[in-house]
Amino acid sequence: METDIELENKEIVNRYKTLIRSMQDRLDSDDRKLIRRAFDLAKDAHKDVRRKSGEPYIYHPLDVDLIVSREIGLGPISVASALLHDVVEDSDYTLEDIE
Questions:
Q1: Three-class DSSP category at 56
Q2: Alpha-carbon distances of 80 from 1, 2, 4, 39, 83, rounded to whole Å
Q3: What is the pTM of this model?
Q4: Taking the C-alpha atoms of 35, 60, 25 and 73 in order, what is their torsion angle to the nearest 10 degrees?
Q5: Residues tagged active-site
Q6: Average pLDDT for consecutive 10-residue bins of the chain (99 residues)?
Q7: Nearest to 13 by CA among 74, 76, 48, 59
Q8: Is the dihedral of CA 45, 51, 54, 57 positive or negative?
C-alpha cells in the first residue's frame, strides 16, 4: 500500500508531465531543460511547505504554470518563472541561486 507521501509525489510528477505535454509542440530540448531545472529547484524549495488545505505547496506553482501555458499561451521562460515565483519569498534560495 502506498503512503500519502508516495501518492503526493506521484501527483507532483503527473502535474509536471501534464505541463510538459501542454507545451509539447512549443518546446525544444533546451526549453525542456530550463523548465526541468526550474521545477527541480521549486520542488526542493517547497519540499517541506504545505498549503492551508494540507496539500504540498508545489501544487500551487504547477497550477499557475498550467494557466500560464494553456490559458495565456506563454512560452518556456514564463513557465519557468511561474514555477519559481514564490521560491525567494518562501525559502532560503536567493535570486542569485535562481540565476
A1: strand
A2: 34, 30, 27, 7, 5
A3: 0.92
A4: -110
A5: 89-90
A6: 87 96 93 97 94 94 95 95 94 91
A7: 59
A8: negative
